[in-house]
Amino acid sequence: MFTKQCIVNLDLEGVLVPEVWIAVAERTGIEELHLTTRDIPDYDILMKNRIAILEREKLSLSAIQDVISGLQPLEGAVDFLNELKTMSQVVILSDTFQEFAWPLMKKLDFPTLFCHNLVVEKDRIVGYQLRMKDQKARAIEAFRALNFKTLAVGDSFNDTGMLQAAHQGVFFRAPDNVIQQFPQFPVDHKYGELLSTIRTWIAQL
Q1: Whole-number pLDDT of residue 163
Q2: Which CATH number fits domain 6-17+75-116+131-203: 3.10.129.10, 3.90.1150.190, 3.50.50.60, 3.40.50.1000?
Q3: Which residues of 139-152 are buried (b: 16+ CB within 10 A; e: fewer)?
Q4: What are the domain boundaries of the chain?
Q5: What is the pTM of this model?
């Protein structure tokens, strides 16, 4: 049973579940949708490009949700998350959208999730609404203001703000181009390694 006043903050896609947009790209054959925040650091540019592609290809929200409903958590993710919950409070900080997240959260036994919302008109994605700008880092800062110790885990450029804001940041299965730009963060590649890193951090609090 955990006793420390700490919160472990996890990115969702790439850490616990597959990348949604890559899955959509593979299902539809739309190569441009393979691009993620591992490739394009500016989230606004990335999302505007995605929405333009969806409009061009007449790809509906329900078609994307159909792809998502078939996705499963990454191998070992559920066991990892269950073990982590015995050690610390856990919050998922993601730049995904409520309209995408429900089936994924169900398969992860509904952890706490902070994310964004889509703007939808007649089953067409026409825009998106950020819960707030830089919400991952702002959430970490809020937890710290509440006197929590914070550890953040991510794999992409859009996670680096929260890794920098946390008491401890850790990359998990991040690509080389991200790691090279942020060499100050340790890198884990397996869930067992990540649990060990978190246990050591908690023990030192």
Answers
A1: 98
A2: 3.40.50.1000
A3: bbbebeeeebbbbb
A4: 6-17+75-116+131-203
A5: 0.93
